[in-house]
Every structure is written in structure tokens, then in C-alpha cells.
From TrEMBL:
It is found in: Membrane. The lineage of its organism: Bacteria, Pseudomonadati, Planctomycetota, Phycisphaerae, Phycisphaerales. The keyword Membrane applies. It comes from Mucisphaera calidilacus. Residues 26-41 have a biased composition (Low complexity). This is Surface antigen.
Length: 418
């Protein structure tokens, strides 16, 4: 269930932004390019998609995220005055109202507020801790409220990440294992999700952290149409279930800056088991491994790349399958038990607070590990701009455009894509 929860706390547009607030906001290394910011598409999706939320807030606050489907004309409504830091002796408040639009929800208003601070003000090496709140409401009736925190304690020997909330999403379900170009079911769903997730990590060696994770929540799903659905799907999609996931997480982090790295790498591995023995409605497990590396090509340019693998074992519910979430595709349109994806991005500072990025990616989902099919590959490419919103903390606003096999997507977010 960690997947879903991680999904809730980080799948939609909102906590993507919150995840960046959650990320350590230490200033970039001396001589390094100022960090841009991306995100992983925040759109209305199911708890598995909501996985976007939790996956970013909890395990991926380090990666950042994006908001899908926003139109360029709406960018004019956002200015740096929308994000206003209020400096304190040991901390900084943030408030960011963001108008967004996506094919799933239509126009939506997203609000993110947070407080960045140090648990050891006299230690300049201490990463920034965070407490944040986020809320969203869209014209199709989707809405959510979330709370989250990330704490660095005892000289950063301990890292505690957690969050919880409630989400009500209206979205379309496309089936499992869809192949681009093939007809697939498009069933309107409403998913209500409430839950929480907590990760407690301890430094076990220099730059290495490990510890237990727990996620629990209730997921209710209903079909939003009177039209007939494919045989067998009615009972699957109309459900009221409980997920309780226990797991372990391991991180090896040598990045020079967790918000917008220019050097180093991050290896993040997460294993999780849901079982009826501790109250879960389904018996299944998951394993996710992501590796990202960063190279400073020039004083103002960084080459970043990542590889992502995710496996589901056993009777995983449709809302917690592996979902393809790379830019250029609608999150949740392609889902199955196994996911593989790779992405390369070049980030270049252009002028003062303005930066740009270009990126390309390739991946697919499949029913079995490493069972690749030529017609299931999902290539994409795109570019974007980054606008630095703050001075004390390297907070950026990201605008991306990406094109894939199924069409194009716009993204607006706070934070790096990874």
C-alpha cells in the first residue's frame, strides 16, 4: 500500500509542489548552476495515480514532480508575487496559489503552503526540514487536502518523512496493459482515498540511509456512468478496500544538493508488502528501484539522467499497479505489473533567474518483468523553462511541454522532474 499512499501524497498536482517544499532546500554548491525545477505531472488520478502524490512526497520529494495539462495562456496568471517568502530567524514561510488545467479535471486551483527550517540552526551543513499543507479543487468536482513533513534530526543521522490526507478524484480508467494505438476502455471513475504513510530512516554508513516504512488507507471506487462496462470490470472497479503496507527503504545519496543537484547520484530502493494478516484487503508486494545521476557539464549546465524499474507481485489492485509517469503521457493510461523507463535531461541557466531544459525518455509497462514488446515502447521528448521564485531557498517554477505517441501534454509545477 505504500505505493498507493506514496501515490496519494504525491500523485496529483498539489503534493508535487508540496514535495518540493519537502525537499531539502539547502543552497546549491558553490560554483554550481542555480537549480531549476520540474515535476511530474499532477493530474487527477486514482490512488495508484494518487501514487503520484505519495510517491513524490514521501519517496520522491527528492525527485520533484510535474503538473499535467496546463495551457500556456494560464501561465500569465502566475507571477513570482504568488509565492511570497516571509523570513524568520530560523526559517521561511511559503504560500503558492497556482491555477492549473488538465484533461482529467479541467480548470483547477491549487494552493500550497509550507515552512522550511533547520532543526539545528547553528549547523550550516544541516539539510532543511519542512512542514507543508496543500489543497486543490477542480471544475469537475475533484478535490483534496494533504499535510506532510520531512525532518532531519540528530545531525541528519535520522530522516523522518510522513504525510496524510483525503482525496476525491474523478478520472478515466483505460484498462491494464494498454498498447498505444489500440482501442482501450475509457471508463469514468470516482475514487475516494484517505490514509497516511510514514518513513523512518537511519544513516547506516556515510550517505546511506535505511529503515522501515508503513502506509495505510481506505480506497473507495465507483463507476460514474450508466453505460455498460466490459464484462468482469464492474466488480473490480466498484470497490471499498483497505490497504496496509509494511516495507523497507534504502537510499544512497551523494548529491551536492537535494533540490536541484549538479553532481552526484541517488539510488532509492523501496520494498513493500500488503497482507491480510495485518488488515489489508489484498495480498501483494512491490519493489521499486530508481537510480539518478547528475554531471556538471559547465558552470551553468547540468546533464541529468535516471533509470526506473517497478515490480508488482501477487494480487495487486488496479489502483496500485505500476503506472507509467514520464512526461509526454497521461499518468494512469498505461499501467501493468512491471514498469521500465529511462530519461535524460539537460538543464541550462540562461539569464539571472531564468533557465531552460530539454529532455527525452523511453519506457513501457508489461505483465512480466523485462518482457518487452516493440509496439509497447513509449518514446517522448520535450523542453521547458524554469523561473527562480526565491532568493534564500532555491525554489523554481517549472513549465514543460512534451510530446509522445498519444499526443502532447503541458506541465506546470514546482520542483525538478528528478
Amino acid at each position: 500500500m505504500n505505493g498507493i499512499l506514496r501515490s496519494l501524497l504525491c500523485s496529483f498536482l498539489l503534493f508535487d509542489a508540496a514535495s518540493v517544499l519537502a525537499q531539502s532546500a539547502e543552497p546549491p554548491a558553490e560554483g554550481a548552476a542555480e537549480p531549476p525545477v520540474a515535476s511530474e505531472p499532477m493530474e487527477a488520478e486514482d490512488p495508484g495515480l494518487i501514487r503520484g502524490l505519495s510517491e513524490r512526497v514521501l519517496s520522491d520529494w527528492q525527485y520533484g514532480s510535474s503538473v499535467k495539462g496546463s495551457r500556456p495562456s494560464e501561465l500569465q496568471e502566475l507571477s513570482t508575487s504568488n509565492l511570497q517568502p516571509v523570513e524568520q530567524k530560523n526559517g521561511e514561510w511559503f504560500l503558492a496559489p497556482i491555477p492549473v488545467s488538465s484533461p482529467q479535471t479541467g480548470f483547477a486551483l491549487l494552493g500550497v503552503g509550507g515552512y522550511l527550517f533547520s532543526t539545528e540552526p547553528d549547523n550550516p551543513e544541516m539539510p532543511t526540514s519542512m512542514v507543508t499543507a496543500a489543497g486543490m479543487y477542480s471544475e469537475n468536482g475533484s478535490w483534496m487536502g494533504l499535510l506532510g513533513t520531512r525532518l532531519h534530526l540528530a545531525g541528519d543521522k535520522w530522516r523522518i518523512e510522513g504525510g496524510g490526507g483525503y482525496a476525491n478524484f474523478n478520472y478515466d480508467f483505460y484498462g491494464v496493459g494498454s498498447t498505444p494505438g489500440e482501442s482501450a476502455p475509457r471508463i469514468p471513475l470516482r475514487t475516494q482515498y484517505s490514509g497516511l504513510v510514514v518513513h523512518v530512516l537511519r544513516e547506516v554508513a556515510p550517505d546511506m540511509y535505511a529503515g522501515p516504512t508503513i502506509g495505510m488507507g481506505n480506497i473507495k471506487s465507483n463507476i460514474r456512468t450508466n453505460q455498460p462496462v466490459p464484462p468482469g470490470l464492474q466488480d473490480v472497479l466498484e470497490s471499498d478496500t483497505t490497504n496496509v503496507g509494511l516495507g523497507l527503504r534504502y537510499m544512497w545519496d551523494t548529491r551536492d544538493n537535494s533540490l536541484s543537484p549538479t553532481e552526484g547520484f541517488l539510488l532509492d530502493a523501496r520494498g513493500n508488502v500488503n497482507n491480510g494478516a495485518w488488515g489489508a484487503s489484498f495480498d501483494y508486494g512491490s519493489l521499486a528501484v530508481e537510480y539518478a545521476m547528475y554531471h556538471a557539464i559547465t558552470d551553468s549546465g547540468t546533464l541529468a539522467w535516471r533509470i526506473k524499474n517497478e515490480f508488482k507481485f501477487g494480487d495487486a489492485p488496479f489502483y496500485d499497479l505500476s503506472m507509467y509517469d514520464f512526461r509526454g503521457y497521461e499518468r494512469g493510461q498505461f499501467r501493468d505489473k512491471y514498469l521500465f523507463g529511462a530519461e535524460v535531461e539537460y538543464r541550462q541557466k540562461i539569464w539571472k533567474r531564468l533557465a531552460g531544459v530539454v529532455f527525452t525518455s523511453l519506457g513501457q509497462v508489461s505483465p512480466h518483468s523485462f518482457e518487452f514488446s516493440v509496439n509497447r515502447w513509449l518514446p517522448a521528448a520535450g523542453g521547458g523553462v524554469r523561473i527562480q521564485l526565491t532568493e534564500k531557498n532555491p525554489m523554481y517554477y517549472a513549465i514543460d511541454y512534451a510530446y509522445g505517441r498519444t499526443g502532447s501534454q503541458y506541465y506546470m509545477s514546482i520542483g525538478q522532474a528528478f
